[in-house]
C-alpha cells in the first residue's frame, strides 16, 4: 500500500511540474508564434549560404552590417569608412582603403557605413549578407 501511494504521489508531482512548466513558458508550443516563428527554407538558405558574385575591374562592392566577403580570384582592395577598415578575420587585421585583400580571406563588414572592396581586376567573391555594387 505504501509503494502504491508513493507511485501515485510521484506521478502527481511530475504531472504538476509539467503543467506548471508549460504554463510558465507562455502556455504554447505552437509553431508560428512569436516565441517560435516559422521561416521558409529559402530564407534560411539566403541567410546561411554564400553566393558567388563576379565583379569587373573598377566595380565597388559595399556591404551592409554583418556582410561576409571571401575573395576567390583576382585582385581587390579594401574600402574603409574614413576612420575604421574592413575586418580581415583570417589575418586578424583592419584593412584600410587601398590595402590589398588576401585570396580566400574572410572579410567582415562590421557596420552599414560604406565599407567593402574595390575590384582592381575582374574578381570572383563569395558573399553572405546584404550588399550593393557600384
CATH fold category name of the largest domain: Jelly Rolls
Assign the CATH class of the largest domain.
Answer: Mainly Beta
Main sheet strand line-up: 1-9-3-7-5-6
Question: What percentage of amino acids are in beta strands?
Answer: 25-35%
In DSSP terms (H or I, runs of 4 or more residues), the helix count works out at 2
Q: Order of helices and strands, N to C? A: HHEEEEEEEEEE
Shape field: elongated
Low-confidence regions: none
Structural classification: alpha+beta
The largest sheet, given as strand count, sense and whether it forms a barrel, is: 6 strands, antiparallel
CATH homolog superfamily of the largest domain: Jelly Rolls
Residues in helix, %: 10-25%
Radius of gyration, in Å, reads 26 Å
Distance between the termini: 82 Å
Overall number of structural domains: 2
